Amino acid sequence: MKTSIATVSIAGDLAEKFAAISAAGFDGVEIFENDFLAFDGSPRDVGRMADDAGLTITLFQPFRDFEGLPEPQRSRAFDRAERKFDVMQELGTDLMLVCSSVSPVSLGGIDRAAMDFHELGERAAKRGLRVGYEALAWGRHVNDHRDAWEIVRRTAHPNIGLVLDSFHTLARRIELGSIRSIPADKIFIVQLADAPLIEMDLLYWSRHFRNMPGEGDLPVRQFMQAVAATGYDGYLSLEIFNDQFRGGSAKAISVDGRRSLVWLMDQVRREEPALDVAIPPMPDRISVGGVEFIEFAADRQDAGQLGSLLRMLGFVEAGRHVSKDVTLYRQGEINIVINTERQGFAHSSFVVHGTSAYAMGLKVEDAAATVARAEALGAEIFHQRVGPGELSIPAIRGVGGGLIYFLDAKTDLAKVWDIEFTPVMPTSSGNGVGLTRIDHVGQTMAQEEMPSWLLFYVSIFRTTKTPMVDIVDPAGLVRSQVIEGLDKRFRLTLNGAESHRTLAGHFIAETFGSGVQHFALATDDIFATAAKLQANGFEPLQISMNYYDDVEARFGLDPEVADRLRSANILYDRDDNGEFFQLYAPTFGEGFIIEFVERRSAYAGYGAPNAPFRIAAQKRLMRPKGMPKI
């Protein structure tokens, strides 16, 4: 598989873009004309820079408003093309993209367009160049790849071919089977982009909301299956117009791009094994059986406070690490680890972020296969010195820099708590409150980072994504999207903050980066759990009494049920499949959230309608702006 990306897809000047694209592992780069025009150097300089970065210039684009013009505009269009041919030869590329005309003076007619392209092909052939024709979704006369192909077919010139762009085809919902009949040698390049499903003007949608394959809602895999069925084996190139990408990290966006192409073609290969898809073999997407543990990095003081909180929540100190300053707390199937080591990754994380949930462990069928797939998709493998009596637990770095460990039942990893931890004899029978397992984990990041996190998880793990929802914080919106395992044993909420004034934004600002902000612990009886927590001295997050009057009326609750909710500060939601109950602890540190939940029947949500009310309550407890930490 040969991969490419258009310079318009990422931020920076050409030197910065080439460096990021090369580092991500791309083979080629499309030169977007505006990037070239803004560069203070010659075409030969650009060609040398690309060559030094190990990149082939796959395409020079775009050449606009060419076909079907009356005179004198037609002659001027050919003159412009000759000038672009000059630039291409100095750049060292042989392919130019011509997009279908939007000129108000252009004339329709497939034969007229074919005559224009035949002459252009003759001129290109004299220079050893090629021209690819692309149907813009908003083209004046040609806005369908089938019409573009018919023009190319009638042109009948070896130097004129077709450019297929997934966005233009999928945005207009054009039937994909038509691609399969196009000869592979007449497809000069394939451009790929995804996008969220939004009803808006096609041009505006294309210019501002494209994203990487897998980050949006368009059927890009099916599009690429049709392309692969032709036998096409040329460059797969990303052309992404996205306001956030252009203002983000060129390095991170390039890594996402390469990952998206590898994952896309892995899907194509698995859907149609008979197709010749040239990507290295890798394990299939990995099923996650749940979250095995959450690990905090802390200093001794914060570890003591966190340990006291956990004991109040019914956890018992279950073990101490055989060689490290690490303590295990447990209740039901929930394992919480507190790491106060003075060296290693956990300590480094504490120095940068303060006390934080810097790592989580996932239960998978095959830990080694999980790491192998993650590595094939560009994830950074994590290695740390293994001491006496310790296991080498497979791990990777997450998008935000935190760690994800993998444990399976087929190796000694299943015995990690027995092998690496010395049991602690409990001083009492404990004060468990009925918590059973981790229901879901919430990770918070800047809103523009959300596509990267989403792509990372859905490409590695066998998961689905829910539609994005807006969570109303008193200080702004937070975008939230959920990733779920097929059996719902693994649930992850991604929360993107647009403003530092929101609770999510405050967390990012105060902890200097994205990461785990929240975990929800499941119980089979929320009212019994609330009573036991109260007996342990727990004081829940105080919810406004106005909320309960509304809930009682909105859901038609029995007054006795509403009174039980009100007295315990339990939030309530209901969908067509069941009921949901939520109880919150006051925030810990700079906004870390612990939640207790009960799902009844097949409730599928996460209590999103309750978010504005619990956020308002949480923000009442936040340290006032400008007040120093104590």
Give a verbal description of the structure:
By secondary structure, the protein is of the alpha/beta class. Helices cover 35% and strands 25% of the residues. The protein contains 21 helices and 25 strands. Strands 17, 18, 19, 20, 21, 22, 23, 24 and 25 form a nine-stranded mixed β-sheet that branches. The longest helix has 22 residues, at 250-271. The radius of gyration is 28 Å and the shape is elongated. The two termini are 55 Å apart. Mean pLDDT is 94; it is low at 626-630.
How many H/I helical runs?
21
Q: In this structure, how is the largest beta sheet organized? A: 9 strands, mixed
Unreliable segments of 5+ consecutive residues:
626-630
How many extended strands? 25
Evaluate the radius of gyration. Answer: 28 Å
The global form is: elongated
The CA-CA distance between the termini, in Å, is: 55 Å
Please give the structural blueprint:
Layout: E1 2-6, H1 14-23, E2 28-32, H2 33-37, H3 43-52, E3 56-63, H4 73-91, E4 95-99, H5 110-126, E5 130-134, H6 145-155, E6 160-165, H7 166-171, E7 187-192, H8 202-209, H9 220-229, E8 235-238, H10 243-246, H11 250-271, E9 288-297, H12 300-312, E10 316-321, E11 326-331, E12 334-339, H13 345-353, E13 356-364, H14 367-376, E14 395-397, E15 403-407, H15 416-420, E16 421-423, E17 435-446, H16 450-460, E18 463-465, E19 469-473, E20 476-485, E21 491-497, H17 503-511, E22 515-523, H18 526-535, H19 545-555, H20 559-568, E23 571-575, E24 578-584, E25 593-601, H21 611-620
Parallel strand pairs: 1-2, 1-8, 2-3, 3-4, 4-5, 5-6, 6-7, 7-8, 9-12, 13-15, 17-21, 22-25
Antiparallel strand pairs: 9-13, 10-11, 10-16, 11-12, 14-15, 17-22, 18-20, 19-20, 20-21, 23-24, 24-25
Helix pairs in contact: 1-11, 3-4, 5-6, 9-11, 11-16, 19-20
